[in-house]
Amino acid sequence: MSIYAKLTELNITLPPVAIPAAAYVPFVQTGNLVFLSGHIAKKDGKPWVGQLGKNMETAEGKAAARAIAIDLMGTLHAAVGDLNRIKRIVKLMSLVNSTGDFTEQHLVTNGASELLGEVFGTAGAHARSAFGVAQIPMGACVEIELIAELA
Questions:
Q1: Which of 97, 128, 136, 123 is nearest to 112 (CA)?
Q2: Residues 6 or more apart from 60 whose CB is under 8 A from it?
Q3: CB-based contact 111:66 (threshold 8 Å)
Q4: Which of 13, 83, 146, 151 has the most Cβ atoms closer than 10 angstroms to its Cβ?
Q5: What is the helix, strand, coil percentage profile of the chain, to 5?
Q6: Would the pTM of this model clear 0.90, i.e. be above it?
Q7: Are 69 and 111 in contact (CB under 8 A)?
Q8: pLDDT of residue 18
């Protein structure tokens, strides 16, 4: 099944690339690797604001990470022109806006990891890091960046 058929089956529409909010580009390709800049969680087109362990539960953070994965796939599509060219999702780095005693950053990040696995199959299995941080730009609850390899 093509990546786009899988997205249709999951009722996912890829968004256009977001305009950078600072001095960076949304993606860079070098050789057969594509690096996507960090994407913050958005809800209804605005930053999905919150802090895990304070005013957000793990399940909501996981939903935010899943939403970021959809945005990342939109940017990846814009970067490479065809998601079927993706040989492997290599790595995710996830920053979770969380209190000092919140320890479920890995479960929040599963929202993105699980969706990428569902969409890309074995090519979606990736290395990753999940960090708790004191704050993310615009108060967003989660930010994720991605590295992919092209076939």
A1: 128
A2: 50, 141
A3: yes
A4: 146
A5: 35, 30, 30
A6: yes
A7: yes
A8: 85
Structure-token match 């990470």, residue found: 65
Dist CA 38 CA 93 (whole Å):
8
C-beta separation of 64 from 72 below 8 A: no
DSSP string, 28-82: EEETTEEEEEEEE-EETTEE-B--BTTTB-HHHHHHHHHHHHHHHHHHHHHHHS-
Joined tokens for residue 50: 């919150």
C-alpha to C-alpha distance for 18 and 28, rounded to whole angstroms: 15
* Six-digit token string for 115: 């969706």
pLDDT tens digits for range 18-41? 888 889 999 999 999 999 999 999
pLDDT the model gives residue 103:
97
The model's pLDDT over 124-138, given as tens digits with 9 standing for 90+, comes to 999 999 999 999 999
Residue of 26, 39, 20 lying closest to 145 (CA atoms): 39
